[in-house]
Predict the 3D structure of the following.
Amino acid sequence: MVKRGMSRRAVLAAGSTIVAWQASPLRAMLRSADAAAGPATRASIDELIARMTIEEKAGQLTLMPAAWGGGIATALNPPAGNNNYPVQIADAVAGKLTGVFNGNGARMALQMQKAVMEGSRLKIPLIFAADVIHGHRTIFPVGVGEAASFEPSLAERTARVAAFEATGAGIDWTFAPMVDIARDQRWGRTMEGAGEDVLVGRLFAAARVRGFQGRNLADDDCLMACVKHFAAYGAAEAGLDYNSVDMSIQRLEEIYLRPYQAGVDAGAASVMSSFNEINGVPSNGNHWLMTDVLRDRWGFKGFVVSDYTGDEEMIAAGFAADRRDAARLAILAGVDMSMSSGVYQEHLPALVRDGQVPLAIVDQSVRRVLAAKAQVGLFDNPFRRIDLNREAQRSRLPASLALSREAGQKSIVMLKNEGGLLPLKPGTKIALIGPFAAEGRDINGPWVVYGDNGQAIDVARGLHDAGARFTVTKGSDVEASIPGGIAKAVAAAKAADVVLLAIGESEAMSGEAKSRTEIDVPAPQQALAEAIAKTGKPVVVLLRNGRALALEGAVRDARAILVTWFLGSESGHAIADVLFGKVSPSGRLPVSFPFASGQEPYYYAHKNTGRPNGPGPLAEYKAHYQGVPNSALFPFGHGLTYGDIVYSALQVAPQMSGPMRVGATITNRGSRAAVETVQLYTHQKVGSLTRPVRELKGFQKVALAPGESKTIGFTLTPDDLKFVGADGKWRIEPGLFDLWIAPSAEAEGVHGSFTYRAA
Ligand code: BGC
């Protein structure tokens, strides 16, 4: 085990506390950072547990929002319970807390940790957590935007930088990645995850865990990841946040559980239980989920934390009788740590004394939490990530901002580009119009605790830095019109060669508790778009959004549309890079854009039904809404480049019995370099259970120079063809399969078939 020394600054800052700690027998006992490994560490943790009172054990299982928020930390959650900072420090010293979250930087952490290391009976270091979701001070694209890159290694790199910055501010543990599959775009938290597809979800889950946790969790630039929200939180009925989930075991196992498992397999140190119930059982009281699946089946060794008061919420859900019952159900299910409600601190001691919760269960949870603290190096050095100078030294470094710009470029999806309107020619007279043109707001996106929109590059600044000729007119507010706004915008459009229309959703329209019934562009902005369209000037829509939207009228009919999500710190630069062709757009939709809100939940991997409406006109008594096809306006996987890409020459053998190579030729007939995301899909024609019309089995990003052709190969394995049968077990069934290598989930690309037979 590498012994990690402290920086000189940290020693000076924490002073005598550290000297005392270094000499302490507890440190000697628990210094091993590799909790998962050594029996020695386990034995020393057990020794420590033997010295703890039941109240101190309940304290180690109790996490609270930091009472000292404010400053750079935006208040995201109302402080629960005690929000008085001195009282919170006293609680920590009394052993009533394991740590706090969403606090304010190294100064707060130093004060709290020092108080605990000097004044508490057992001197168990506090742990500092935070919602570092898509960046800390350098902000990266929101999760769904970054997933549009179809480049998991990019997500690993941005998570690494987020960890580097956050650990500089004293943070040991992030509540990320959020890996919930989002198939209903009314759900506001779509913005946080990797979209609708299970393969993309799995790859991004694992990449983000690797990025946050780095090489060695004990390093001072690595932090614990937390895979959330376990489980199936994204499947809330009708896209209503917190709503119930009711689904077949097949769908749960095949789609929803797999990204969490990928995060666990990547070594995530913690998991957060979700607010929702599944089939009548709230996650926080679900022993099958928290113990049978997570631990016994997947071998998870870390700890589970409840989501914010989620344990207590089992009362309102009608599953727990009162707070004491909620604490009992949660700890028995396997939820190790309680966030914000205080029910463990309040009731675990009496529940143990009354014999309703075995002491061994509490000890097991305490052991997991202490092991995690050892693993992140806190026993070796409680001040490992606390250094008053480091936060500034690590914040917004040029390389971090450059990565944000790269991530922004790769997250932008070009939905259409009629007549090759983009890229714009130098010298084009531009009218930049819309509520997101220039106001320095709504750039970073939801779930940013420590970032500052004031430091982010808006579209106007991006155009300015690119040397563009442009005027700026707001035209409309996000959800309200501005008196005279449309008239001014129309005049500006008439005076220009091209209009850039920066419209869409504000930060307040997506994120937690931000479900929408209509996933449209708000009416005042739609009216602005209609008026601009009447000028006849070519329009490029720059869409800001945290979910897929149902585009209508002049927005849908604009000559060009770029999906720009919430791109973070370097947003305007990344958008200008694409607009002027410094880079070719390469993002692909990780969520399908429907024709209409009423199609939700719409996802490409749906079933055929017995009455599919084939391609072509809508037929009576076939599966579709009145006047709307049962397909997407812009499907999952769709996205254009400045190249002109053609798929040809499918290679697939007629029979498969083991791993099989398949491939196709991809050609760029255009005059500009392009990056194409080549996608492999299959469909089992007949099964003992019906199968989705298509399932993504692989993808590759391919760079193609003008005129260049490449043969792109994939290896399809029998495992890729497995599904969960009626008996709840994974199986593979022989039979005929369709196969596509295509540019999106609903494009034909090249299409063939093969028969699978076991060897
Ligand atoms: C959210 C979590 C978050 C927690 C702490 C909850 O409301 O659902 O995703 O980590 O608050 O801020």
Notes: The radius of gyration is 27 Å. Residues 76-77, 102, 131, 175, 228, 307-308, 512 surround beta-D-glucopyranose (CB under 6 Å).
